[in-house]
Write a structure and sequence with these properties.
single chain; mainly alpha; 71% helix
Protein backbone atom coordinates (compact mmCIF):
# COMPACT_ATOMS: atom_id res chain seq x y z
CA UNK A 1 0.00 0.00 0.00
CA UNK A 2 1.44 3.36 -0.97
CA UNK A 3 1.35 6.61 1.00
CA UNK A 4 -1.45 8.12 -1.06
CA UNK A 5 -3.66 5.09 -0.48
CA UNK A 6 -2.92 5.11 3.26
CA UNK A 7 -3.77 8.82 3.43
CA UNK A 8 -7.13 8.19 1.76
CA UNK A 9 -7.93 5.33 4.12
CA UNK A 10 -6.93 7.35 7.19
CA UNK A 11 -9.37 10.07 6.13
CA UNK A 12 -12.11 7.45 5.75
CA UNK A 13 -11.22 5.98 9.14
CA UNK A 14 -11.52 9.37 10.81
CA UNK A 15 -14.94 9.88 9.18
CA UNK A 16 -16.36 6.63 10.59
CA UNK A 17 -15.09 6.79 14.18
CA UNK A 18 -18.27 8.36 15.56
CA UNK A 19 -20.81 6.44 13.45
CA UNK A 20 -19.15 3.13 14.32
CA UNK A 21 -19.30 3.83 18.04
CA UNK A 22 -15.54 3.91 18.61
CA UNK A 23 -15.50 7.62 19.47
CA UNK A 24 -18.15 9.83 21.06
CA UNK A 25 -19.36 12.94 19.23
CA UNK A 26 -17.48 16.13 20.24
CA UNK A 27 -14.82 14.20 22.14
CA UNK A 28 -11.14 13.60 21.50
CA UNK A 29 -11.07 10.55 23.74
CA UNK A 30 -11.09 6.92 22.63
CA UNK A 31 -10.93 3.99 25.00
CA UNK A 32 -7.38 2.64 25.02
CA UNK A 33 -8.67 -0.89 24.45
CA UNK A 34 -9.68 0.06 20.91
CA UNK A 35 -6.01 0.69 20.13
CA UNK A 36 -4.98 -2.84 21.07
CA UNK A 37 -8.04 -4.60 19.70
CA UNK A 38 -7.78 -2.83 16.33
CA UNK A 39 -4.09 -3.71 16.05
CA UNK A 40 -4.88 -7.31 16.99
CA UNK A 41 -7.68 -7.50 14.41
CA UNK A 42 -5.32 -7.11 11.43
CA UNK A 43 -3.01 -9.78 12.84
CA UNK A 44 -5.97 -12.08 13.50
CA UNK A 45 -7.06 -11.77 9.86
CA UNK A 46 -3.55 -12.60 8.67
CA UNK A 47 -3.06 -15.51 11.09
CA UNK A 48 -6.54 -17.10 11.17
CA UNK A 49 -8.07 -15.98 7.90
CA UNK A 50 -10.74 -13.40 7.14
CA UNK A 51 -13.90 -15.33 7.95
CA UNK A 52 -12.70 -16.73 11.32
CA UNK A 53 -11.41 -13.29 12.36
CA UNK A 54 -14.69 -11.63 11.43
CA UNK A 55 -16.67 -14.25 13.34
CA UNK A 56 -14.53 -13.82 16.45
CA UNK A 57 -14.95 -10.04 16.47
CA UNK A 58 -18.61 -10.20 15.43
CA UNK A 59 -19.74 -12.57 18.18
CA UNK A 60 -18.00 -10.50 20.82
CA UNK A 61 -20.72 -7.83 20.97
CA UNK A 62 -22.55 -9.30 23.95
CA UNK A 63 -19.60 -10.25 26.14
CA UNK A 64 -18.61 -8.23 29.17
CA UNK A 65 -15.67 -6.34 27.70
CA UNK A 66 -14.63 -2.77 28.16
CA UNK A 67 -15.25 -2.21 24.45
CA UNK A 68 -17.47 -3.66 21.75
CA UNK A 69 -15.16 -5.28 19.19
CA UNK A 70 -18.01 -5.38 16.67
CA UNK A 71 -17.57 -1.59 16.41
CA UNK A 72 -14.21 -2.26 14.76
CA UNK A 73 -15.94 -4.39 12.11
CA UNK A 74 -18.58 -1.72 11.68
CA UNK A 75 -15.89 0.90 11.07
CA UNK A 76 -14.05 -1.31 8.58
CA UNK A 77 -17.32 -2.12 6.78
CA UNK A 78 -18.23 1.56 6.56
CA UNK A 79 -14.77 2.36 5.23
CA UNK A 80 -15.03 -0.28 2.49
CA UNK A 81 -18.49 0.95 1.52
CA UNK A 82 -17.24 4.52 1.17
CA UNK A 83 -13.94 3.67 -0.51
CA UNK A 84 -14.02 4.15 -4.30
CA UNK A 85 -10.72 2.27 -4.61
CA UNK A 86 -12.24 -0.83 -2.98
CA UNK A 87 -14.25 -1.34 -6.14
CA UNK A 88 -11.04 -1.82 -8.10
CA UNK A 89 -9.54 -4.07 -5.44
CA UNK A 90 -12.48 -6.40 -5.00
CA UNK A 91 -13.08 -8.54 -8.08
CA UNK A 92 -16.87 -8.62 -7.69
CA UNK A 93 -17.53 -4.91 -8.16
CA UNK A 94 -21.02 -4.83 -6.60
CA UNK A 95 -19.61 -6.47 -3.45
CA UNK A 96 -18.13 -3.32 -1.95
CA UNK A 97 -21.36 -1.45 -2.61
CA UNK A 98 -23.21 -3.92 -0.40
CA UNK A 99 -20.71 -3.63 2.45
CA UNK A 100 -21.88 -0.94 4.84
CA UNK A 101 -21.29 -2.27 8.36
CA UNK A 102 -20.29 -5.32 10.41
CA UNK A 103 -23.26 -7.43 9.27
CA UNK A 104 -22.77 -6.84 5.57
CA UNK A 105 -18.99 -7.27 5.85
CA UNK A 106 -19.41 -10.70 7.44
CA UNK A 107 -22.04 -11.73 4.86
CA UNK A 108 -19.80 -10.62 1.97
CA UNK A 109 -16.85 -12.59 3.37
CA UNK A 110 -18.97 -15.72 3.77
CA UNK A 111 -20.38 -15.24 0.24
CA UNK A 112 -16.93 -15.14 -1.32
CA UNK A 113 -15.34 -17.77 0.96
CA UNK A 114 -15.24 -20.35 -1.87
CA UNK A 115 -13.61 -17.94 -4.33
CA UNK A 116 -9.98 -17.65 -3.23
CA UNK A 117 -9.32 -14.64 -5.46
CA UNK A 118 -12.23 -12.62 -4.11
CA UNK A 119 -11.52 -13.66 -0.53
CA UNK A 120 -7.87 -12.64 -0.88
CA UNK A 121 -8.84 -9.27 -2.33
CA UNK A 122 -11.43 -8.65 0.38
CA UNK A 123 -8.93 -9.72 3.05
CA UNK A 124 -6.40 -7.26 1.69
CA UNK A 125 -8.95 -4.44 1.76
CA UNK A 126 -9.98 -5.34 5.32
CA UNK A 127 -6.36 -5.41 6.54
CA UNK A 128 -5.61 -2.07 4.86
CA UNK A 129 -8.70 -0.50 6.42
CA UNK A 130 -7.82 -1.96 9.83
CA UNK A 131 -4.30 -0.56 9.54
CA UNK A 132 -5.63 2.92 8.74
CA UNK A 133 -8.14 2.65 11.57
CA UNK A 134 -5.36 1.68 13.98
CA UNK A 135 -3.29 4.68 12.86
CA UNK A 136 -6.11 7.21 13.29
CA UNK A 137 -7.14 5.81 16.68
CA UNK A 138 -3.59 6.47 17.89
CA UNK A 139 -3.92 10.17 17.04
CA UNK A 140 -6.68 10.61 19.64
CA UNK A 141 -6.38 10.78 23.39
CA UNK A 142 -6.42 7.15 24.59
CA UNK A 143 -8.10 6.84 27.98
Amino acid sequence: MDKKRMTQLIKLADEVLVSSGIKQQNSNDIKDSYNGQTAAFGITVLMSGLVPALVIYYQDANENREINRRAILKAVGQMIGRDPKATAMIADRPMNQTIRDADTLLKAAIRCADDKTQLKQLSREVVECATALKQIIRTYNLV
